[in-house]
Amino acid sequence: MALGKFRKEETLVLRKKLIGQSCRLFYSEDPVKIVKARGQFLFDENGKRYLDCISNVQHVGHCHPSITKAASAQMDLLNTNARFLHDNIVIYADRLAATLPEKLCVFYFVNSGSEANDLALRLAHQYTQHEDVIVLDHAYHGHLMSLIDISPYKFRKLAGQKEWVHVAPLPDTYRGLYREDHPNPGQAYADTVKDLIEEVHRDGHLAFFAESLPSVGGQIILPQGYSTKVAEYVRSAGGVFVADEVQTGFGRVGSHFWAFQLQGQGFCPDIVTMGKPMGNGHPLACVATTVEIAGAFTANGVEYFNTFGGNPVSCAIGLAVLDVIEEEDLKGNATRVGAHLKDLLLKLQPRHQIIGDVRGVGLFVGLELVTDREQRTPATETAALVVKRLKEEDNICVSTDGPWESVIKFKPPMCFSMDDAELTVKCIDRILTDVQCLFKA
């Protein structure tokens, strides 16, 4: 089949014929065909512009000229197997090390967040000499078999829970076991992990694996002190703490480069995984760990190599992303615009009873809709309607998450502006007003 420009209907017919049907599109009833993008904007085949509140992968903005220039220049010079000696990989590792606590100083480069999480699981198993893992309820860590096994979001729909996987309650202070009125929810939720450790192994030796801010779980902000206490319990039992930063790293939270740093200066995981945003759309991911854990992995006597992980082009792109984050103050932008977005959404809450909760930090924000504020019943259908109408009426792309798909999530490119936030909230206000009128009628 020759390269060419198909009409949208033709592309859909070919996709249904050639691409596995489990690979679903956004807006599957009426997909948007995107042919171009710049910054925080997407353009369809007719030139219609959409505001993108979805693409956290294109971290510094779609098709950023500095990224495409770095990729093109390095590709024109050399791209080869990562087992050849090259400067880019060590320069990039050194730059990443400068953003992390000192003890996280050994890096393994891979090509996707799933690949990074799979390797982190291997590192943890090798170091602890046990395969037991504690994960959070509703967690999602990737699509490989090893990761589906530790992702309740997936395994509950498939083969079920393996005996070596242990599920701790999601530390959700809106609808979880311990809510916003609890005097110390961080400690209370951490104690559920402690109970699980004692139940699993008297001698411990397990891994605790969690996103620094659970995303699929519903844009959850972990209560203060939670990770510090969990790490204390896990390490006292001979285990390791793995922080999955695939969705939240690289300054998205604004105040810090890594979301795990929200838990306080004294907290440091044993293994950190990163992916999606680090290549701005180019397949690039990484695992960072300690000398001790890396040493245990080396000591198994089996060589680890990754043909493409850390290749010269990927590392050139990764370095360019770091440069743009710094030069354009994208952490600062995430702080300012994210706070404004959250404040605007909070101001809608008194006017719309359907808004149950507004939560978030930086450009990681969730708007949870409920049919009843007392019972906190998920308003799944209304959330889907808001997503549909924003796309059809306002050319704004958002999506939902959470166990009941009742949380409208905002993880836009980091160049998202004050005007973008104001437009998005204005449109949500209009739609929720219409919905309210329909209910009254």
Automatic annotation (TrEMBL):
Pfam families the UniProt entry points to: Aminotran_3 (PF00202)
Coiled-coil spans in chain: none
Keyword annotations: Lyase, Pyridoxal phosphate
Cofactor: pyridoxal 5'-phosphate
An example Gene Ontology molecular-function term: transaminase activity
GO cellular component terms listed in the entry, alphabetical order: mitochondrion
Family of this protein: Belongs to the class-III pyridoxal-phosphate-dependent aminotransferase family.
Protein name, UniProt field: 5-phosphohydroxy-L-lysine phospho-lyase
Organism of origin: Dissostichus mawsoni
